[in-house]
Amino acid sequence: MARDETPFSLRPARAHEAQGQGRLAFALWQAWRYPAVIWVLAEQDPQLPLAASATFVRAKGLDILWAAEEALRRLPGALVIATPEKPLTLTAGRRLQLAAESGTTTGLLLIEDGAGSPAVETRWHCDPLAGESTLHRWSRIKNKKGPTGSWTLDWDGSSAAFDMVSAPA
Quick one: 27 exposed, middle or buried, by C-beta within 10 A (0-12, 13-18, 19+)? Predict the structure, then answer.
């Protein structure tokens, strides 16, 4: 499956982060775009995301990061999504970045606001827009290799297709 370039494309062989109330929607949209997805969840997480193509791995504590590292090293071309339970240290973020590079795999960490690592390539802040169930605002707030920006899109979650929404005049 080819991943078309969009403002939301994640560079391969890199680790990225998403925060905000809409981070799960951002991860699901990314999952639609990859032929293989490994999703590492906390052991006590009560729900599995509705990502049909994903393989789910349950772990706890630091095992979440270990499982994500191992998947990043061994699954070229895949997307590895992880939900760390604690803020990432610089060392943990760097280890994930090196694992993504060595495995030519894309990593996406779903973090709490302010819990990111300086080692990641990009950080996204994602929020649903009030009043419209399919409108989202995805903002790239950190980017080591390019511009930052903010986009409003209409995405219903049923495919990787979306519509960009223009700012009101």
Answer: buried
Of 78, 88, 85, which is closest to residue 59 (Cα–Cα)? Answer: 85
Residue 124, both tokens: 């996204």
Separation of alpha carbons 155 and 53, rounded Å = 19
Taking a C-beta distance cutoff of 8 angstroms, is the pair 8, 29 a contact? yes
Q: Transcribe 72-87 into DSSP letters.
A: HHH-TT-EEEE--SSP
Q: What is the model's pLDDT at position 61?
A: 84
The tens digit of pLDDT for each residue in 77-118 reads 999 999 998 898 899 999 999 999 999 999 999 999 988 899
Query: What fold, for 15-124?
Result: Rossmann fold (3.40.50)
